[in-house]
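Researcher: I'm preparing a figure for a lab meeting and need a structural model of a single chain. I don't have an experimental structure, so a prediction will have to do for now. The sequence is pasted below. Please return the structure as tokens so I can convert it later.
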Amino acid sequence: MQKDLNFGDYNTFYGMVEWKPRRKHHIYCYIAPNQSTMDHVLGRQIEFRGQTFHVAEKVQTQLRSFIFSPGYEYDVLSRERGHLGIQFQVNLFALKGSFSTQGGITLPDGTVTTSRSASKSFTAPLPTGGPTFRYYVLPRRL
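Model: Understood. Here is the structure written out token by token.
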């Protein structure tokens, strides 16, 4: 993605909401939506979803991702300076990538390209779990 389409650094958002119904129990949810669009002139031919995008053709690429991760944590040890526990969560990924072009370049065989587009979506759950800990080096959670 970086080499062919010039996707590099981009800003993202990441948020978390947590509810503690009791002292050692945490119910939480992470959310991370992201959308990035780039215009790029191709340096090599790319085929995506049955569409061929040619060298020197200007393409607009778009990447969208949405990650939603609800989870539960139980603190086996809970102290003022930190905790040791176990957590389980399900990461729900929704990804979409798309290419589009206006066309209008002449290929080596003399044909002129037309505008075309292609996209692909992917959704998958990924359950995770394991130990978790936090230790505050300085008092008062600094």
